[in-house]
Each structure stands twice: as C-alpha cells, then as structure tokens.
Amino acid sequence: MGAHSIKANSTGRRVATAGLLAAGAAIAGAGTAAAAPVTVDVPVELRLPGVPAQVTVDLPEGIALPAGLAQAAAAQAAPVEFAAPAPQISTGQRILDAASTRVGSPYVWGATGPNSFDCSGLTSWAYKEAGISIPRTSQAQIGGGTQVSKADLQPGDIVAFYSGASHVGIYAGNGQVVHAPYSGTSVSYAPVDSMPFYGATRYY
C-alpha cells in the first residue's frame, strides 16, 4: 500500500509540474503584444529533478496568472524596506549637547542652572543632564575622572584653564570649548588656545 501511495504522489507531482510548465508555455504563446515578463517560483512540492525553481513567462495584456501564482509573483516583486538603525549618541556628545542648549544664559557666580551659571556650575549641570554626578568646584572636577592630554580631547571632556584650575569648560570639538566665562558675559564658545591650558579630565 505504501509503495502505491508513493507512486501516486510522485505521479501527481509530475502531472502538476507538467501542468504548471504547460500553463507557462500557453501564456507565452498567447501573443507578444504588450507582453511583460513575469517570474514565479515553482512550489516546493512540485520541484523535481530537471524542473527549474522558477519559471519566467511573457504575460500578454489581458491574461491573468492563476491566483496562487499571481500572489507569488506579487510578493516577489514587492520591495523590501529596512528601517535604518537609530544613530547612537555617545555620552560625551550628550554632555556637550546639554551644555550647548545653555549658550546665551548669563554668568552668575555660584549659579548651577538651569537659567544661569558660573563655570563649574555649567559643567556640573551638563553632566547631570547626561546622568553623571561630578564634583561642584573647578578644582575638584579637574582632580577627578580620568586625566586626558590636550591632544586626546573628545567632546564632553572637562577642560581646566589658568593656574590652579580656576576656570573650566566643556570641550566642544574643533579646538573649541563651551563655557560660562565671567560676570557680565554669557555661556558661549571659545577657542581652547584662547586661555592658558591647565589640564583635562573625562568622567565617562
């Protein structure tokens, strides 16, 4: 019984495959006016030795593929869209971005934001916005973290200036810092080399 069943199934597949290929030939021979090539996958159950995995036929205008094949052809032709991965923002960039939003805010001695700042008040506020707690004063800030050289500065690093690290800012890239300079000024950008460099540190 099992042998008869296998033979019947094999014969059925051959008949169905022959029918599929004959249908393709019939469609191709129906005419070439306004013909468009259509490629469809041969169903897995119909793939036998010598039968291609795909069949391409010229489909004349006004002749439709059988429903199953039409769906396969449409699925094959449908464009596949991939969502671009969200850009990764570094911790240093988040620190810099926070400080940059305060450009134009007035310098006020002892202020830690969000509307006015002194120099170390700006740096501690920007770090807090990025989820990092650092010391409050400029000397304590430059004394902690991981010390970095001037040549290895990255956006977000704290840069100290003048003898005794009396002033700090946040490195903004391209040789610039964003800082709260002194009374009567506001948060702004300045070249690193516009002030005597003392040192730099990184907390991330």
Automatic annotation (TrEMBL):
It holds the Pfam family NLPC_P60. InterPro entries: NLP_P60_dom, Papain-like_cys_pep_sf, PG_Endopeptidase_C40. It comes from the Bacteria. Residues 1-35 form the signal peptide. The keyword Hydrolase applies. Residues 89-204 form the NlpC/P60 domain. Keywords: Hydrolase, Protease, Signal, Thiol protease. PANTHER family: NLP_P60 DOMAIN-CONTAINING PROTEIN-RELATED (PTHR47359:SF3), PEPTIDOGLYCAN DL-ENDOPEPTIDASE CWLO (PTHR47359). Belongs to the peptidase C40 family. This is NlpC/P60 domain-containing protein.
